[in-house]
């Protein structure tokens, strides 16, 4: 696959697990960007496959000052075939894709973007991610594809999910505050108390 890809289009390869190769890759990309030849370099800033339901967090390394980004919004039409790689073995994935009726994508070239003077690499990457996600109509994920492989990212995602669930539960709770004779305040939730008796969780019907 690498040989075929290199013959079709000049390609820069790297082993993502190697810090040295990642550094050399970035240097090669920056060298190509700064050359006067004006040859564009196509990158996929997510760095991982995604299943068309969200835009993963963009890698920040290329979002530097003086670099012009030309975002491309790509959205797959899954009605005829799904090219998302979720198979255990590559040959199974290849067989599924090659036997699909068609693999269809909507590709839109968006307006160019440059980094603002007060913007960090993270901010610029997040802004570009948001532009793409808004255009294709899916959420911008605050996690990268590492969440599928990294234990620390999985733990961080779990904490975010816990906080989100807690906020959702609290939004249904209508708190009553009442002062007792001894001066203390008691707080209770009509919804939670009512839930024990089979009442609705709708605070407006309490």
From TrEMBL:
InterPro entries: Plipid/glycerol_acylTrfase (IPR002123). The keyword Lipid metabolism applies. One of its GO terms (cellular component) is endoplasmic reticulum. Keywords: Acyltransferase, Lipid metabolism, Membrane, Transferase, Transmembrane, Transmembrane helix. It holds the Pfam family Acyltransferase. SUPFAM superfamilies: Glycerol-3-phosphate (1)-acyltransferase. It comes from the Eukaryota. Its main location: membrane. Residues 7-75 form the Phospholipid/glycerol acyltransferase domain. GO terms for molecular function: glycerol-3-phosphate O-acyltransferase activity. One of its GO terms (biological process) is triglyceride biosynthetic process. It is found in: Membrane. Belongs to the 1-acyl-sn-glycerol-3-phosphate acyltransferase family. PANTHER family: PHOSPHOLIPID ACYLTRANSFERASE, PHOSPHOLIPID_GLYCEROL ACYLTRANSFERASE DOMAIN-CONTAINING PROTEIN. This is Phospholipid/glycerol acyltransferase domain-containing protein. It comes from Dictyocaulus viviparus.
């Amino acid at each position: 696959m690498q040989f075929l890809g290199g013959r079709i289009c000049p390609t820069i390869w790297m082993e993502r697990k190697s810090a040295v190769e990642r550094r050399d890759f970035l240097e090669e990309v920056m060298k190509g960007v700064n050359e006067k030849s004006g040859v564009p370099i196509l990158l996929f800033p997510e760095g991982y496959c995604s299943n068309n339901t969200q835009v993963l967090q963009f890698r920040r390394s290329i979002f530097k000052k003086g670099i012009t980004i030309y975002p491309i919004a790509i959205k797959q039409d899954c009605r005829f075939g799904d090219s998302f790689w979720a198979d255990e073995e590559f040959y199974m994935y290849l067989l599924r894709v090659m036997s699909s009726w068609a693999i269809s994508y909507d590709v839109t070239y968006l307006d160019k973007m440059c980094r603002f003077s007060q913007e960090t690499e993270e901010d610029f990457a997040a802004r570009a991610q948001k532009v793409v996600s808004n255009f294709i109509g899916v959420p911008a994920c605050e996690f990268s594809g590492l969440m599928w492989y990294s234990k620390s990212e999985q733990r961080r995602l779990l904490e975010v999910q816990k906080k989100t669930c807690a906020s959702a539960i609290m939004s249904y709770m209508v708190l009553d505050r009442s002062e007792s004779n001894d001066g203390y305040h008691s707080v209770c939730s009509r919804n939670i108390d009512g839930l024990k008796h089979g009442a609705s969780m709708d605070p407006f019907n309490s």
